Amino acid sequence: MHQRIPWSLRFRFFAALGGLLLCAMAALAAISAWVIFPALQAEERATVKRELDRVERSFQLDQQQLHAQVRDWAHWDDTYKFVQGEYSRYADVNFSQEMFEDMRYQLMAFFTSNEDIYFLAGINPKTGIYQTCRTPINDCSWMSPWVNNMRAAIAENSTDQNSIYAGPPTAMMASSPILRTDKSGVSTGWLFKTRSLDAEWLAFMEVYTGLPLTLNLSHEAAPINDTFSFSGNTVYAERYFPAYGSINHLSLGVGIELNRTNYLTSLTTFRYVLLWTAGLMIMVIALVLLLLEKIVLKPLRLLTQFTQQISTVGADTHGLTKRNDEIGLLSRAFQEQFTCQQQLNAELLKLSTHDALTGLPNRRLFDQRLDVAFSEATATSAPLAVMMLDIDHFKLYNDHYGHQRGDECLQQVASAFNSVSTRFGFLIARTGGEEFSVILPEASPSSAKDVGEHLMLAIDHLQLPHATSPVKPFVTVSVGIAMLQDCQSQTPSAVMSSADQALYLAKAAGRHQVVLFEPSLASRSVSAHNKLL
Predict the structure, then answer these.
(1) Which of 162, 181, 197 marks a domain boundary?
(2) What is the CB neighbour count within 10 angstroms for residue 38?
(3) A GO biological process this protein is involved in (predicted)?
(4) pTM > 0.70
């Protein structure tokens, strides 16, 4: 008869394995309670704070844009003249209900240097009708609370900033001293702009941020920390900003409501993982070493080689991108990211070398190409021509038609220039406001002048109306050409200076013509330059 052994190896093995499993489960429970769950909660709060940061950045960006717009208007010669009573048509030319609605302005106020109201314009928040006033009374009495805040800001000498005012209604306000465009002289007054933080603004910000937003005005000082409120599947978070008004210790709370689905899903998933980990731990330990090399380590090595060789070989020799697992996803994501990075680099290069308005090369690219063309022409003794073109009386065009039409004119002129440059195969760049420059390698004086004639005729064919031009009733250009061999100093700046002198000669001769620089004309170009000045 065999005696039973109470502490057999089999029993001790299962006891040890059971004890190890209990210890592992206890460790998992402790890690979950003290590390994982707090980390998930911290990550959830961090995610909410990132969204609040994004909302705050959008809010601050809106304030900065309003402040920049105020400065742009306040540092404008026309505004300077308007407040001094020298530009009676200023309001008619620049103000309209459409402008206020497009720029989302509620009120614009002009004050003289004596702190008196000079002009008020805005959209009545009750009627939605555009109004202009000299004093905030009667139909314009709705402007009075904001005007009082503006006067208080002038008294406190805080007129070059943006702030939030409690209202009514709540609004952001930006201000700036009124100066000449070159900021010479003393301030002739102050300009204020307000933008109501109403339902329309809130809807705009919700579209901009992609988040549901709320605004709450508190009669307490803005707390330092954000506030969080968790309720079921949602979390409501609020961040406060200091506000100004007739009551001290005001603050504006901007709140967002986010869904907690990701957090709750992660929490539930993690709990299931803990249960399955406890039941499958033994089997996982037995299989992990066997499968590690085949499923993880080898594909990772191939993925490393793929990421190192994609910039030089560019081919997926191991078919990683065709896999339907995580390695395949990583490979495809990396390949897409690498392609996207190349495209972004190409776009960045284009942005740094091309004019944003016209799409033509800018001065930076022009100077680079000029240096290359100059070096090649010097090394081979080949001819080199450069050309400067200027739109005749473009300032009169802008003053008459407005800057928007001026930009459209520049775009059409640039398109016409680009068509000619494509046909003849040369570089044309926008190197100034209405100034363009051309490089013509290996061009003779006659061929360069022929190109100038084509460019001038291309603009003539556009027949862009220019009612205030003393040259023609349509937009025209003047062209100055210089040859490298005609310059006293063999440098890129010298040949461009000669082209500039030829351009001044063309202007002095009545504009709308092509002039080729000659050394004998140098003194005449100086006198022409002085005459134009």
Answers:
(1) 197
(2) 11
(3) negative regulation of bacterial-type flagellum-dependent cell motility
(4) no
